[in-house]
Amino acid sequence: MITEPSDGPRDEPVVLDARELAADPQLEARFAESAHRILADLVAGGAALGWIEPPSRDEVAELLGDVVSAVRAGDASLRAAYVDRALAGFGYWRRYTRPTHRPHADLEKLAVDGAVHGRGVGRALTAALIADARERDIEVLTLDARGDNTAALRLYRSLGFTEYGRLPDFVAVGEARYDKVFCMLDLRRQG
């Protein structure tokens, strides 16, 4: 059950892992629908989340089901952030599947409701996902972002990610072209 933090502002995000989310039947029942709404709104507004058109409810439900299955197998982490019991954002990473890449994971999705941008939700989610990666002995956490997503890239840099590659004009959205930026956080170098 989500309880509001007692020592902070009421609108401070509360970040839950998949187990905590599943322990609250009301939140769990609304999670996929709320995640779909966030993704659909962000993509409709041009956000760089891997879709050109907003994903369908079924597509988001299937994606989240796959992530939850990977979490249960110990191969992923899913975090959900709530502000006043409303889903404000979510993110997840999954281990690479190739045997030689198993100590590594890719932060595949981080989506924050536009209504709460600038309130620390993305930072709280990413920090929790990094902590989960450390606990699960992930050596390197990777991600990619569209080059014009400067706010996300700034956030990732502030949390220790470094750019290790860039594909110029790789992402095509209609006639527009954007760089694909690859970032990594080497957890082997951190205590």
Describe this entry's structure for a reader:
Helix 2 (25-44) crosses helix 3 (57-72). This protein has a seven-stranded mixed sheet, sandwiched between helices. It has one domain (14-189): Gcn5-related N-acetyltransferase (GNAT) (Aminopeptidase, 3-Layer(aba) Sandwich), CATH 3.40.630.30. It has 191 residues and is α+β, with helices and mostly antiparallel strands. The protein is globular, with a radius of gyration of 16 Å. Mean pLDDT is 92; it is low at 1-9. The protein has helices at residues 18-22, 25-44, 57-72, 121-135, 150-158; strands at 14-17, 76-83, 86-95, 104-112, 140-146, 162-173, 176-186. The chain starts with 13 loop residues before the first strand and ends in a 5-residue tail after the last strand. Helix 4 (121-135) links the parallel strand 4 (104-112) and strand 5. The chain contains five helices and seven strands, in the order E-H-H-H-E-E-E-H-E-H-E-E.
Q: What name does CATH use for the topology?
A: Aminopeptidase
Tell me the domain tally.
1
The main β sheet shows up as:
7 strands, mixed
Note the overall shape.
globular
- How far apart the termini lie comes to 32 Å
Question: Given the structure, what is the number of helices?
Answer: 5
Structural class: alpha+beta
List low-confidence stretches. 1-9
Estimate the helix proportion, in percent.
25-40%
